[in-house]
Design a protein that fits this description.
The chain is of the alpha/beta class and 107 residues long. It is built from 5 helices and 5 strands; from the N terminus they run E-H-E-H-E-H-E-H-E-H. It has a 5-stranded parallel sheet with strand order 1-5-4-2-3.
């Protein structure tokens, strides 16, 4: 698993030469409704075990939560289940709002 900063993720998403990662937002629906990165898929942390088959083991997956702790746990869980191309957004959506998109609501 890699630890990815918000500016590094922004650079990845802006680079047309790199395949876009699957953005896995593991927060709760109310958090996602408050703010999220465009095209991020909502799959709350508690739903991951039941929905693991919905995820592509071969895809580059970036796990996202509020501050980076829940997403770190989800990334570790996925890693234990054979997923190999995982990144955790360090500092979560809060870091994204502070370092990349200052107009994004914070909570």
């Amino acid at each position: 698993m890699e630890h990815l900063s918000a500016p590094d993720l922004a650079a990845w998403l802006a680079d047309p030469s790199r395949p876009r990662p699957f953005l896995l937002d593991v927060r709760e629906p109310w958090e996602y409704e408050t703010c999220h990165i465009e095209d991020a898929a909502l799959m709350p942390m508690h739903s991951i075990p039941a929905r693991i088959d919905d995820l592509d083991e071969d895809a580059a997956i970036v796990c996202i939560c509020h501050h980076g702790m829940r997403s770190l746990q989800v990334a570790a869980y996925l890693e234990q289940h054979g997923f190999g191309r995982l990144s955790n957004l360090t500092g979560g959506i809060d870091a994204w709002a502070r370092q990349v998109d200052p107009a994004m609501p914070k909570y």
